[in-house]
Amino acid sequence: MASSSSKLLVDKHVAYIQALAKNKDDLAYHLTTHLRLNAIYWGITALHILGRTDALDRNDVVDFVMSCWDDEAGAFGANPGHDAHVLGTLSGIQILVTYDALDRLDVDGKRTRVVDFLLSLRNDDGSFSGDAFGERDTRFLYCAVSALSLLGEREHLARIADPAVAHIQRCRNFDGGFGTDPGAESHSGQVWVCVSALAILDQLNEQTVDIPLLAWWLAERQLPSGGLNGRPEKLPDVCYSHWVLSSLAVLRRVSWIDGPLLERFILAAQDEEGGGLADRAGDMVDVFHTLFGITGLSLLGYPGLEDLDPVYCMPASVIEARGLRKDWLALPRRSA
């Protein structure tokens, strides 16, 4: 149901996220089995940005994360019994970091094993695969870099930096954007993972990114409705409020889009009855768009929200506590 509200319906969204863990008889619950751990990361991050850190039981969440451990591979799958993948592994680590529970990896050598798993995904050209089956994507490179950074593996990051940066450069296009692989079309999601990986590796500079050209390409993603799209000639979608804005935040160019117009687009996608946000007004809500609508509002400085770190897509306070937040401030910290 489309929203006519001009305010963020915080209590509705909290209740929506809380209900997701309980509705196990719902068809959507079973259709999303393959991304359960990702969905939990989306939900708890949204709750933390909303300032409702205790809305889910911490121990229950952490126990579920550990139940997704694939002991054969030494990393996390998307659900208990699923094969390990870099996407699930990053989400698992993000959740453990958010709840200050990384010590759960100190049992039975899990921390060492998960680092070994991440490093095993490297390819000779500097790219990363998602799992043992070898699919390559700049998303997977970002996931590995982000996970290693959250684990404090600075020496390993330094070791992989040069080939990883070289691969990212090969994925850069004439329009300033980045694709999934060399020669692939620019997409704002891929722009975010590449720019953020470069930032983590301390390689975000005028040699690796054409900042004015890329910022212009990102600003061009805003449509008359106020919403942002992922690439030219596509419909606006609430999730790009994160991919585009976070990239602009890292580049210090958030002001290049019309913030109030985007805010109205995001708020119109709320479900006033059941909570949650959809891709656009009138569509079905889901936890993915709920998170990225809320993070977009945070980056715009919406009142009452916690600050987001645009590189890690985690609460800024959590990243600061890890000593990882650098100088890519979207806005002065409002809730430090």
Automatic annotation (TrEMBL):
Catalytic activity: geranylgeranyl diphosphate + L-cysteinyl-[protein] = S-geranylgeranyl-L-cysteinyl-[protein] + diphosphate
GO molecular function: metal ion binding; Rab geranylgeranyltransferase activity
Pfam families documented for this protein: Prenyltrans
Record-annotated Prenyltransferase alpha-alpha toroid domain positions: 8-314
Cofactor(s) listed: Zn(2+)
GO CC, one annotated term: Rab-protein geranylgeranyltransferase complex
Co-factor binding details: Binds 1 zinc ion per subunit.
InterPro entries for the chain: PGGT1B-like (IPR045089), Prenyltrans (IPR001330), Ptb1 (IPR026873), Terpenoid_cyclase/PrenylTrfase (IPR008930)
GO biological process per UniProt: protein localization to membrane
Keywords noted in UniProt: Metal-binding, Prenyltransferase, Repeat, Transferase, Zinc
Protein EC: 2.5.1.60
Gene3D superfamilies hit by this protein: 1.50.10.20
Subunit structure: Heterodimer of an alpha and a beta subunit.
Primary role: Catalyzes the transfer of a geranylgeranyl moiety from geranylgeranyl diphosphate to both cysteines of proteins with the C-terminal sequence -XXCC, -XCXC and -CCXX.
Family listed: Belongs to the protein prenyltransferase subunit beta family.
Name of this chain's protein: Geranylgeranyl transferase type-2 subunit beta
Species of origin: Auricularia subglabra (strain TFB-10046 / SS5)
